[in-house]
Amino acid sequence: MQDAHANLEGKVYKLGRGGADEQHKADQALFHELLQEHQQLKRETRLIDNGIVATTTSDNPHLAKVLQQHVVGMEKRFGMGRAIRSWDPLFVALFEYKDEISMDYKAIPKGVEATLTTENPKLIELIHAHDATLHGFVDKGFEAGRSESPKPSWLE
């Protein structure tokens, strides 16, 4: 018998599907627009002792607003434990350890600046893997969005 949370591609959603409510649809539409227009995005990351400070920007004012709305939506989902990409081991781990990861963000003129930190040294590697995933989304769009994310060695 197939897993109740498996889709036609054989991906198993360990924390269930994202949902079909209006908020999920809005979050998904923003994410899809960012993947579609990925070539208009720029991401830079600075490593800090306990995490990262990353800026994601666009010279396109509309996409800068989409970035800002996306980050607000993801912060809400993270805070409520409403998983995304729960077929992807990295994202499953992010939601499992969400109470040990702090996310602070601010809107900047062309997008967002986000700071992700943790006091758990093991989770710094998880934050770095998430950052590499987001760089992949910016670099490759939907191609990266369909692939499993890089993950820390301890997550094997």
Automatic annotation (TrEMBL):
Taxonomic superkingdom: Bacteria
Protein name: Uncharacterized protein
Species of provenance: Thiosulfativibrio zosterae
Highest classification ranks of the organism: Bacteria, Pseudomonadati, Pseudomonadota, Gammaproteobacteria, Thiotrichales
